[in-house]
Amino acid sequence: MSSSTTSKPRYHAIQPVHPNVTVPLPEQPIDRFVRPVARFLHIEAASGVLLMLCTAFAIIMANSVWADSYLRFWKTELGVSFGSLHFQHSLRHIINDGLMAIFFFVIGLEVKRELVHGALSDLRRATLPIAAAIGGMVVPAGIYLALQYDQPAARGWGIPMATDIAFVVGFLALLGSRVPNNLRVLLLSLAIVDDIGAIIVIAIGYTHQLDGRFLMLAAIGVGIVHLFSRLGVRRFPPYIIAGLLAWLAFHESGVHATLTGVILGLMTPAKATIVPDHFHQYLMKTGEAFRGEVWQTVNQRAQKVREVQRLTRETVSPLEYLETILHPWSSYFIIPIFAMANAGVAMQLSNIEDPVAIAVMLGLVVGKPLGVLLFCVLAVQIGWARLPSGVSWRILIASSFLTGIGFTMALFIDGLAFGEEGLDTAKTGIMVGSAISAVLGMTLLMWTLPTPKSAKVRT
Questions:
Q1: What is the per-residue pLDDT across 43-69, written as a single tens digit (0 to 9) for each?
Q2: CA–CA separation, 96 vs 106, rounded Å?
Q3: Is 433:361 a contact under the CB 8 Å cutoff?
Q4: What pLDDT band is residue 347 in, cutting at 50, 70 and 90?
Q5: Nearest to 103 by CA among 407, 436, 405
Q6: Cβ neighbours of 230 (radius 10 Å)
Q7: Comparing C-alpha atoms, which of 269, 298, 273, 226 is closest to residue 117?
Q8: Mapping DSSP to helix (H, G, I), strand (E, B) and coil, where does residue 26 land?
Q9: Which candidate in 48, 267, 356, 388 could, as Cys together with 425 as Cys, close a disulfide (CB 3.0–4.6 Å)?
Q10: Is 229 helix (H, G, I), strand (E, B) or coil?
């Protein structure tokens, strides 16, 4: 065998965009490790599975001989100093206020997408999930307040209000093709509206004493972002700097800093700058430069490549581009880290029997499905909405229990209501209530949903 044959690199084809277009790339050693990871990230239930594993890890560590070391690790102080300015907080605080701002930014992007292009853009389609979400927030909060009326823990009324979208998506994915697409859309839309409600609750119910100076500075930061957008600034660094300014100002103002992410997400443009047809014409004109030996004679090739990269990115909206980039980081890094930092709680029988834990559990297990169903029935009876095709009342009743999985937002609000470390009894209620809701929801759905064979016969 000749040396030219042995040194020839192996190629593999990738098909990222069009089924009839393959792009050959030299196969690298790292591809053997990257491909399995990429396949895992494309599994719909993967983020929910990872979140469950991280939650289990936190609970196991908090109930092991290493509990003190594990919980103390998240209290490690980190900070930076610049002259007389000091920013020093615990690792848990940095995760909950810093990393979670990116999570809330992704939520803002998802909300904007749904309002502009998704199920919430059509009022008739949006009425049912909006009604379900409102019922799923009001009734659990009412149950909690009724049980904790005039008690110090009444401040935790927002804990059982929100649905964890990652877990819901994960459990629906486990049921595969048995889940009607309209049910999937309904539950995801409900979770999006739920997130909007949670954001409003955080802004109104868990905002401390306000500092007008920093609020003004935060408004200036947000205003700069808006100005950049109006001027047509296309690079991300200026937006990041202005966003960090707004985040720092919100952090010091008394308004929770994560709301910065929501505001900036909702401000992100949902329209592409370049029409695909125009980009296609550009490629037709410049494509010859990339052919064979011609490319070797082209001047400033790196600049040419950068121009094509920039124009390619402009064929999709900043919203779509950022959501695609940040969603994996949010689902597979930020939320798992948040779970490990906040879900560690000693599982004691006394905690489960505590009135706060009982109020949270009843809010999630009883209040969420009851509120969802009552408000859905009301919306349908009034004539404002109707059940989507393929979704019967039996299926809706079964799926309503999944909305009682209130993990991420519930833990987040627990920290706002009872201090950075939260309240162990409330956390216990969240864990147990979410687990019961998941078991009930999955059991009832497996019983009510048609089997794959019968679903195929119906179609």
A1: 556 787 888 899 999 999 999 999 999
A2: 15
A3: yes
A4: confident
A5: 407
A6: 8
A7: 269
A8: strand
A9: 356
A10: helix
